[in-house]
Amino acid sequence: MSDYLMRADAPLTEEEWAQLDHVVEHAAKALLVGRRFITLTGPLGPGTLAVPVFKVCTGHDSEEGTCDCGCEAGECDCSATHVSERELIPVEHFENDFILSWRDIAANRQMGLGLELGPAGAAAAACAREEEEHIFDSLLTAEGRNTVALKDWDEPGVPLENVVEATEVLVSKGFYGPFALVVSPALYAKTQRVAKGMGRVVGKLIGDICEGGMFRSPILRPEEGLVLSLGAHNLDLVVAQDLTTGYMGNEGLDHLYRVLESVVLRIKRPGAICTFEK
């Protein structure tokens, strides 16, 4: 483990560190939805402050006369797919602190009941939520994304029709499967009903179209959702420092720890995103 985390200075045994790491990992996984369908790149190392993102132009649209660069036909040589833009984007850093009481550490060693790691789990969940907010805020507001109107998912068959509409928009723009659907818990619940005349749950029918999976995220508001064309050529999550825990030192007799990570979402082709809009 890197020296900057100062784990060797903490008053924990290897077994106690293993317990803490287990709690942090599992608490974060319960919230980390984005990592289930977005390609991961890295870890690149904690010293990574920024990463390049390359935006791709696939050429002119013969009907609209414009291309992914935003130029008009004849203004640039867009006869072939090429990298149209290169820029550096900063890596986002998330951290949350927690305290382990000296009494709890002593009680574990005296009675063997295990460390009280509730504070560690809460800090890990808070860190994971920040990552999720970064991912979905970026996806839902990406300039150049596609949109379709969110219809009334209370009506039988409408969720399936709406998802099919979104995938058709993506295909028409040159973005193909596998597709993934991500919706709020409220919209997800409306897909868990049997479709009339089909004898199958609506969500299962949607799964036949979205081979990349159907996911629900508590980060999304009740009427938010999106369909994505997956693949690292469209977007990826760059990990500089993956979620870990470091030791901050003592506070009196108690001990301060920090859960931290550094990541950034790279959207290379925003047209691979189709959001539902009211």
Describe the 3D structure.
There is one protein chain. By secondary structure, the protein is of the alpha/beta class. It has a single domain (3-49, 91-277), classed as hypothetical protein PF0899 domain (hypothetical protein PF0899 fold), CATH 3.30.2320. The chain has helices at 14-29, 102-111, 118-140, 158-172, 185-189, 202-209; strands at residues 39-41, 50-57, 82-90, 92-100, 146-149, 179-183, 214-216, 225-229, 235-251, 254-267, 273-277. A hairpin with a 2-residue loop joins strand 9 and strand 10 (254-267). Helix 1 runs parallel beside helix 3 and helix 4 (158-172) packs parallel to helix 6. The mean pLDDT is 91.
For the record, the count of structural domains works out to: 1
Helical segment count? 6
- The fraction of residues assigned to DSSP E strands is 25-35%
Question: What would the principal axes of the Cα set say about the shape?
Answer: flat
Helix content bin: 25-40%
How are the strands of the biggest sheet laid out side by side? 5-11-8-6-7
- The CATH class label is Alpha Beta
Unreliable sequence segments: none
- The sequence of SSEs as H and E is HEEEEHHEHEHHEEEEE
> Major sheet, described briefly?
5 strands, mixed
Output the radius of gyration: 23 Å
Structural class: alpha/beta
Distance between the termini: 48 Å
The name of the CATH topology is: hypothetical protein PF0899 fold
At CATH's second level, what is the architecture?
2-Layer Sandwich
Q: Compute the average pLDDT.
A: 91
Instruction: Work out the number of β strands.
Output: 11
